[in-house]
Structure formats: structure tokens, C-alpha cells
Amino acid sequence: MKKLLCISICLLSVGARAQNPIIHNQFTADPTARVFNDKVYLFPSHDIHAPAGQRQDWFCMEDYHVFSSENLTDWTDHGIILSQENVPWGKPDGYSMWAPDCVVKDGKYYFYYPNAPKSGRGFAIGVAIAEHPEGPYTPEKEPIKGVSGIDPCVLIDDDGAAYLYWSGMGIRGGRLKDNMIELRDGSQVMEGLPEGFKEGPFAFKREGRYYLTFPWVRKENGTETLAYAMSDSPLGPWQFKGIFMAEHDNQCWTNHHSFVQYKGEWYLFYHRNHYLPKMDKRRSACIEKVSFNADGTIQEVKQTLRGVGHTLATDKIELDRYSYVSNDVAIDFNDSTDTFKGWNATLTNKGSWLRYDNVDFSGISNGYLAIKVKADANTILTIRENSSGGKVIAELAINVEASSYDLKGQWTILIYAIENMPKSLTNLCVVCEGQEVSIDWMQFKAAPLP
Ligand code: FUB
Questions:
Q1: Residue 178 near residue 156, CB atoms below 8 Å
Q2: Ligand 1 pocket residue status of 414, Cβ below 6 Å
Q3: Most buried pick, 43, 89, 315, 339, via CB within 10 A?
Q4: pLDDT, tens only, 4-59
Q5: What is the CATH number of the domain that holds 364?
């Protein structure tokens, strides 16, 4: 395998990305995922940098977007579905459009959202209604009476009865009337939940059992875990079952989540502050797979960078979103002044490796590999199947010193012919066989060398 040429970045198309976080051009907190019409729709809140005059160190949200996906990897942004200026009862400059939810009933989509009311303090919860999940949504003139708080979630039971849950002086719930915009019989505190701060309820039903899941601070001065309780009835009483996701391993104080079943698998959507690690009020949605035990309890979910789904070999494979890695690999932002430009991985030593799982090579014939790398000295990478000792797919001699180009220390796209293109779903392991080297992405092409 030999290096053939280096080309400019713009020759390669930008492919989809499948990794955490899942939306790459804006912050997306409090992700509620729902399946409508065989697609997953994502209704997050939309953290923004606070404009002048607003508290700079606090949550700041002025509108909602909706996104959809058929494979959990390629997400379409359908744009803004509701802005604070358009909420008849809301403060037009409240910047308080916190965690939302959306459900469908009798062909209408009901979008539930908290907001700061024009008069009074705290939060109210409003409803906006649409004919399609993408909108347009028309907000009701008044918020839901008898509800004061944040983080609405609606569960529609098998018999069509709908229940609203929210967070306000504990987690509360109440049945909605058939019109979906009023409480039928008032509300009650959900009983059986543990002591400690709780918010962000997400309720769902699986195999006849009700789940009430919620962010929970389990220890003094702690940050939020994700925890749950189960019941035989939609409004409890609940039996506390423990946590299913531990605290973030950095100082991101909040977590907020939803569960969805799609194409036979269960997924957990949650958030953390990937794109702004120094500040925890600008968050980004992530996904992991979830498994249940035979008794219905939830297996603990670990946070990953790889996330879920398959990455097409012909898309850009962002190796810094690895599945597994040796502990001498360093991850850095490509541009610390614009973190939405993503990350790169540096394999610091001979023997450093990272593994990226579930790359789909089906139907791809031999062709070439393009890889964006940076090195200060000549080095070698091998691309292997499954592990650092696995079958070699390609050996890449990275010659930054010996050429008419001066490539030392510069990001460069190098191209290599591939004669043993894998044929199916493959876990790729990239191994440093020489000096330190940084990698931004790689991409396979079933085409003759350019
Ligand atoms: O996004 C603002 C608030 O942070 C949410 O309403 C809470 O659940 C927490 O995620």
C-alpha cells in the first residue's frame, strides 16, 4: 500500500456522522425522542449563548427546533417550530423555553413546553398543536391551568387515557382531559420516589409495566444521575429501582433524557456538554442503546462517544468518536474557537490504537481510502479488523518529510489504494506503528484513485 498523492479537503464530500453528540451545528439539550410515521423525531430544548443583558452563566433558550431521522445517524433539522415571541402568554424575552415533549393523539401533534409567563414568577406549561410533527404549531392562548413547573412529559396509555407529568415541588402527575390541554382531575405528587433533587420526568409503558424515569441527585453536592421507578398504574404509587445512568464524569450538573423503541430496539436519549466542556448550560443530545432484564428492570447505560447506528464506510468516519481506545490517545477540538468543527484524535506512541465499531462496507468494491492526518515526522498507521492485532486492511506510510510538499505538522489529506476492502459490517482498529500522529477522519471510496 503506498501513498499516492495529497489533495485538497474540498474534493471530498461531507458525509453523515453517527456519533455522540448527534447534532453537530447547534446545542440540543433535554432531548425527547418520539416515533411518528416510522421516523424518530427529536424535540430538544435549544441552548444558546446568552445575549447581552441576560445572565451569562445560566440556561438560555429562545425557541425550539425539531429534527427527524430514519437511521438515528442522519438527522434533518426541520427548523424552528416555536419561538418565545409567538407564545401569547409568555415573556417575549424570557429565554426560558426549557425541556419539551410532543405526542400524537387522533392525528394531532401536541407539543408541551415550559416557559416564563408574562405575569407572575416561575414557569407555566403550554401546549402548541400541529397537523404534522414538523409543524407548523399553533400555541394555545393560555398555559395549562393548575400546572406550575417545568419538564412536561405525556404518556398515552393503551386505552387512550393521557397523563401529564412535570417537575414542580417534586414530580407531579395528573390525567389530561381528552382535549389534551386541560387536567381532568387535578394532579398529585408521585409517591415512592427517593429523597433528593429530582426533575425531568419521562414516563413510558413497556410490557404492561409503567416506568417513571427522572434525573436525580443522589448525594450531597452531587450532580444528576438518571434514575427510575416502576408501577402497575400510571400515577403510581411507584417502587424505586435505582439508577440507570451514573453522574457525568465531568462537572455537567444536569442530565435529561427520554426512552424510545425504534425498529425493535430501545434507545436512551440524554445530554451532556460535549461542545462546551467548560460550561454546563450549553448541552448536546446523545444516544445509547438500552437493555432490560427479564423482570423489566433497566440495565445500567454507559455513556459513549461512538453512540449508536452504523457508519457507512463511504461517509467520513470521525475516529475521535471511538468505541474503545488505548489510554495514551488524546482527543482535542479541531478549533477551540469554534467547537462545532469537531475533534481529532492523537495516537501519541507506537502501539497507540483506537477502535471504531460498526462501519458498513456492504456493496463497496476495492478503491481507495482518504485520511486527514497531521504528523511531525514520518510514521506508519495500520488499519485492522477488530483489534490492534487483527487482520490488516491497509498499511499507511505517512511520509511528511520525504516529498516535494512540506507536510510536517500540517493537516493533510492522504490517499491510499485499498486492495482488500472489507465486505460487510466491520470494527476498524487504527494502530500507530511509528511516531505520534493525529487523525481527524477517514473515508473509503469504491472508485479508482483520483
Ligand atoms: O434545560 C433546562 C433544565 O435543565 C431542564 O428543564 C432540566 O430538566 C435540566 O435539564
A1: no
A2: no
A3: 43
A4: 333 333 333 334 566 999 999 999 999 999 999 999 999 999 999 999 999 999 99
A5: 2.60.120.260
